[in-house]
Amino acid sequence: MSSFKDELLRLLREDEGFRIEVMRLLGIINVNASLNQLIESVNKLTKSIEDLREEVRKLWEENHRIWEEISKLRKNHRKLWEEIQKMRGES
């Protein structure tokens, strides 16, 4: 029995075709292919998340800029209103 085991181990070590056939029979090749597809999908998702983060960052910056402009417009509106009130009081 030991010689059969030794021969099997020798074939697995030395004979690539035999090793691949054993892996195919065990379903290891299919698992490897599935694992590679999964890794590729995770990498694509990671890239998409990074792209989305960058887009959200840009949107926040633009949102901040818009609110600064609104604040300036409010200040100008308040000043204009005060001037109108002064003009009405002087008339």
Largest sheet: none
Percent of sequence in beta strands: under 5%
Distance between the termini: 117 Å
Shape from CA axes? rod-shaped
Task: Give a brief rundown of this model.
This protein has 91 residues and is mainly alpha-helical. The protein contains 3 helices and no strands.
Question: How are the SSEs ordered, and which strands pair?
Answer:
Elements: H1 2-14, H2 16-26, H3 28-90
What does it look like?
The chain has three helices and no strands. The protein is mostly helical and 91 residues long. It has one domain. It is rod-shaped, with a radius of gyration of 36 Å. The model has no long low-confidence stretch (mean pLDDT 92).
Which properties best describe this structure?
91 residues; 96% helix; rod-shaped; 0% strand; mainly alpha; 3 helices
